[in-house]
Amino acid sequence: MENVLRPLLVVGGSVLLTLIIGWATDLLLRKADGRHHETPMWGLLRRGRIPYQLVLCAALLRGLYDEAQLLDRHEVAIGQALTLVLIGAAAWLVIRIASAIVETSYSRYARAHRDPARVRRVRTQVTLIMRVVSAVVGVVAAASMLLTFPAFRAAGASLLASAGVLGIVAGVAAQSTLSNLFAGLQIAFGDMVRIGDTVVVDGEWGTVEEITLTFLTVRTWDERRITMPVSYFTSKPFENWSRGSPQMTGIVFWHLDHAAPIDAMREKLRDILRECPAWDGRAYGLDITDTTPNTMQVRALVTAKDADDIWTVRVKVREHMIRWLSEEHPYALPRVNTAEAAVPHSRSNGSPPHDGAAPSRDTKPPRRIHEIPRAGPGR
After folding, report:
1. Each residue of 312-329: pLDDT tens digit?
2. Cβ contacts of residue 201 below 8 Å, gap of 6+?
3. Nearest of 288, 282, 297 to residue 263 by alpha carbon
């Protein structure tokens, strides 16, 4: 009877005690969370209740297993398994606690500061710090698990003796990985690019969605994801539209006929911007920036508070101005010469110019200019 009750008391008592302690701890955290709404620390700590209970249960079973006198033949293997579970659960609990502390610090900083750029910078740093902490804890836990095996402890001396050669080989083999790792740390603490920044890389416009120690993800305007190594942002130039002030100046170009009404276009641009909520009212302008034999290039400058609004202002100005020109001033749209120049009358009958002199440059034959008909709504 004693051989049956002893294992039940040890195992069952350990599990029951674990559940009671875990329930009491969770109750205390819930009460603390209810009293202190200004900090999410206590609510975040509740995420670690599962690894916390695993640590308690594994520690109790590991310490009381000798008293259970169960499966004596496999006592060493069971003890080894409990030790591994204890190390893994402890590492899991440390990561959850560190995550709660880091997220609480970030939330307090975000509430205390109104500058979105600084908040994004701290968010990027916090994310990468948490990844580094998780990696370090994982490596330490894995090393601790391996050291519990006698075979690995015996091989430790030989491994340390060849550590120099292995370090050189590993450094050469992991050169790309290490460069990305240091580039990720440089991005996090060098304030080069942050989560939420609007960037242009390789001609693609998008928002930084995720930054890790090795790669960076950009979400484009059409909801595609571009994954790039972080070393790209430390070795090649890129545009960061969110660095500094988010205010931006946009440009809209038109190629128009030389007879286009520039003054009327300036007034129309002002009217369009007044009816556009995305325009921030700082500045606007319209000028001729270039000419060709057939057209001239007209440029409009507009301003907005951020990258999203500047895109809206540009497309609105471009659309409304083209519609207004086509309805009110169709002659201002580009035209193409489709007729050949008329041959002089003196050349048409085959006779040379009188007096044998070359024709004067001041007497140019007239040319007819035809507009290319624009397709109607039904074409």
Report:
1. 999 999 999 999 999 999
2. 218, 226, 228, 232, 233, 238, 239
3. 288
